[in-house]
Amino acid sequence: MVESLKTLRRRLRSVKNIGKITRAMEMVAASKLRRTQQVLLAGRPYCAKLQELLAHLASGSQLSEHPLFREREGRRKVLVVFTADRGLSGSFNANIIKNAEQILRAEPEAQWQLVCVGRKGRDYFARRQWPILESLVGLGGTPDLAQARRLAALLLDLYTSDRADSIWLLYSAFVSMVVYRPTLARYLPLSAESLGFKPGAESAHDHHAVDYLFDPSADEVFDQLLPRFLSSRLYITLAEVTTSEHSARMIAMNNATKNCTDMADNLTLRLNKARQATITKELLEIVGGAEALKTGS
């Protein structure tokens, strides 16, 4: 019983220490979540306005032959998978990886290649011998504009050099503090519909129906706007992913802290019962010894 008391005390001490760690990790995740959420909420209007402008311009027939708007019939596809560099975030990484595998296996005739953003996704697909074109790790849980531009340049080069017929993004879209949704979105080629323009929806009073005059030309305007849009879209995607990651980690650590508290309460109860049993046993031995002395005398 003495050994049992030592074991229970050691386990109780370990559980309490783990609870302190998970509580600290929850507070760190909550702090990072507030910062990345501010970045996301500040960046969404800019990206949405830029997308709206491009949708208006893309509705013109003069852009139908732009290289980034031209549909291709090939089967060479690139899937950009966004995961986290670290774990301890519940099912955050597992959900994205599961969705990625479903997408890859749903079209066996397609020639899929991967671009992995985040160490967890890269390690998972590398172990399973999936073709990985490029990986981007070490983001540190914060959206980085320089990394977004680097990734945008890479994807743009893959598409313009005719090494990919379409490029898709798979990431966790941040909805609320407790909801993040795996989302698949086409990155390239662009289209007026994918930018939000719906043919036939314009009316006499709709600003979509305005005829735009391009100065110096539509191609030159797009040469300036499109790289900004593609980079900003990836930057917002990184902000969505990092915000969802911190939200998932905060929830996971909160649940872990609650579990530690419940385990500590249970171990404390067992420890008290074991201690009471030990005291009762010692009292019985003392009383038994005293009775034996009386009987012997």
What's a quick, concise take on this entry?
The chain has 297 residues and is an alpha/beta fold. The protein is built from 5 helices and 5 strands. The longest helix is centred in the C-terminal third of the chain and has 79 residues, at 218-296.
Could you please describe the fold and organization of this structure?
This protein has 297 residues and is of the alpha/beta class. The chain has 2 domains: 2-23 and 252-287, ATP synthase, gamma subunit, helix hairpin domain (Helix Hairpins), CATH 1.10.287.80; 27-194 and 211-251, 3-Layer(aba) Sandwich (Pyruvate Kinase, Chain: A, domain 1), CATH 3.40.1380.10. 59% of the residues lie in helices and 13% in strands. It has 5 helices and 5 strands; from the N terminus they run αβαβαβαββα. Strands 3-2-1-4-5 form a 5-stranded mixed β-sheet, with helices on both faces. A hairpin with a 2-residue loop joins β4 and β5. α1 (2-58) runs antiparallel to α5 and α4 (145-160) crosses α5 (218-296). The protein is elongated. The protein starts with a helix and ends with a helix. The mean pLDDT is 85.
